[in-house]
Amino acid sequence: MLVRDAASSDRNDAMFPYLRNFNPYSGQSWADGFANNPQGNNQESSSESMVFNSSLILWGQLTADKAIRDLGIYLYTTEQTAIEEYYMDIHQRNFPPSQKYCLVSRVWGNSNDNGTFWTGDIAASYGIELYPIHGGALYLGQDTVYVKRLWDEIKANTGIMSNQANPNLWHDIMWEYLAFIDPATAIQMYNSYPELSIKFGVSDAQTYHWLHAMNALGRVDVALTADYPIAAAFRQFGKTTYVAQNYSDAAITVTFSDGFKLEVPARKMVTSMDSPIGGDLTSSFAQAYVGGNIKLNVTASDGTP
Question: Are 218 and 236 a contacting pair, CB within 8 Å?
């Protein structure tokens, strides 16, 4: 019902409009359909639309509903192109000479700008197009030339390098974005600012995991595709790492476009660099506290402790 409400794919649906706020002509979503502004409809956060689109792919795959999965794929891939053209102009062929920044944060029916609906701070303009960063946000890291261009601009126009306390500057989101091209530096920046205020909707654990996962995986390899939608490939130091998530009750084999086959057990996410380990986590206290002793014994598959 929620899917139908937000994006019914039935033109004859008696309850909900077809695709509701998605505009197939322009290939992007609108925040609403009221057009209650002289500039027409608008959308402020393209990245939030991509959360919805990627969620449809996941939900369709999880429930074995290919129609919902494929609707999500259509919306995701189409809106990604719209973001790259209208919001980021990654090919540098759409923004007028008067545009000062390499992205916009609001696209209107007849214009665009770098404002937000709560502030004119450019830090918010950057952040609202990146937030939240998650598995479905890998599209943001596909064009590393653009990532560097935008990151250099963020460094120049915000206080990200000095750990500036600013409610409109979401350090954790910016570090996660930097991790697409330089995760080691992102980790250093994370370690340098332990007292930061966490952006609403993002946890410290998620930020830590993302930074270190990208440091281990490397850059998104956009040249490699797969015959399964919940999969991605990364490349670092000349080595490719393959990743896939299997929501089903049976093991699957995911074949990537270079011929690599990844075996994925039921209800598991695996990578090609995984090694089976086992361990026991024990504590000498009923609950952990500062100064407590915790012992972790880990054994690799070959019996090495």
Answer: yes
What CA–CA distances, in Å, run from 62 to 6, 132, 229, 250?
19, 22, 11, 12
pLDDT above 90: percentage of residues in the chain:
86
Per-residue pLDDT tens over the stretch 8-25:
999 999 999 999 999 999
Residues 57 and 172 in one domain: yes
Within a domain: residue 7? yes
For residues 92 and 60, membership in a common domain is answered with yes
Element (H, E) at 107: strand 106-108
Which residue range(s) make up the domain with 259?
231-275
Residue 245, both tokens: 């998530």
What string of DSSP letters covers 216-283? Answer: HH-EE-TT--BSSSSEEEEEETTEEEEEEEE-SSS-EEEEBTTS-EEEE-TTEEEETT---EEEEEEE
**What predicted TM-score, i.e. pTM, was given to this entire model?**
0.91
- Please give the DSSP secondary-structure letter assigned to residue 285: S
Residue with tokens 């937030």: 131
Residue 47 is encoded by which pair of tokens?
A: 């990245």
